[in-house]
Amino acid sequence: MERRRTTAVTEFRALSPRVSDQFWLLSRMNFPKAAREAFAAEFARFLDQADGIRKPKQLFDLLSAFALNFDCPWVAYGSLAPDRKGLKLVRGDPAVMLNYPDEWRERYFEMGYDKIDPTIKRSRRRIEAFRWSEAYNDESTTEDGRRVLDEAATFGLRSGISVPLHGPEGSFAIMNFAQPWDGEFRNRTITYLQLAALHFHLRVTEFTNSTRVESTSNLSSREKECILWTARGKSSWEIGKILGISVNTVNFHIKNVMRKMDANSRITAVVEVLKRGIMEV
């Protein structure tokens, strides 16, 4: 049984974003024909509907509905940067999406559990999906880490799996699927959910990249001038004098940059513009 799971995971690593390749993988798995055909129908429906969605939240809702086929009412997705231990949680940012119980979600982030969650730590070292019980019993997991999973169980998330989704430059995301009862996920179920998580992650990445390209291309020359002088430490009054425009006009352009960069301050906007390579100071 374990050998069959390893074979499926090996093929999963080489999976490309193309739908045809995903179905090729399904045809190669050593699963009973009836089960394979049943999943193929559900997965094909998921893919067809996902390709018509243009908003991350709607895509997450579709994935959550798909997970219910495998008795997983709770799903969580979070992305991490190479230099961060915890999840990125920014209002309006699709980096974190989850439908966990409100009480558990609030406690999880309030207590900073994303920084000691053993499923996140294990995901940094793994490519294939794993059961939460594997992370719990890992000898490298601390008592604080085990407490995170113990508390999750008290809020109804009694068993689950995590799917690491590694990206370029050391970045990665993690997808969790949870059930309200004790018991281990079947190997076949894990493989099914891996495929859905991968397709979801690819689509969300497309959304994010297209949004950044759109933001960059829509930054006007005047907006670039204003944010450039802001990066050089100039005030709105000084920028107005340099460019020959009013302070109100300067502030108008800077606020536009902040909106396009999804920043809550002009300094954050400067950082984001530099990070995206839109300009150099």
From TrEMBL:
InterPro entries: Sig_transdc_resp-reg_C-effctor (IPR016032), TF_LuxR_autoind-bd_dom (IPR005143), TF_LuxR_autoind-bd_dom_sf (IPR036693), Tscrpt_reg_LuxR_C (IPR000792), WH-like_DNA-bd_sf (IPR036388). One of its GO terms (biological process) is regulation of DNA-templated transcription. Residues 212-277 form the HTH luxR-type domain. SUPFAM superfamilies: C-terminal effector domain of the bipartite response regulators, Pheromone-binding domain of LuxR-like quorum-sensing transcription factors. Keywords: DNA-binding, Transcription, Transcription regulation. It comes from the Bacteria. PROSITE patterns: HTH_LUXR_1, HTH_LUXR_2. GO terms for molecular function: DNA binding. The keyword Transmembrane does not apply. This is LuxR family transcriptional regulator.
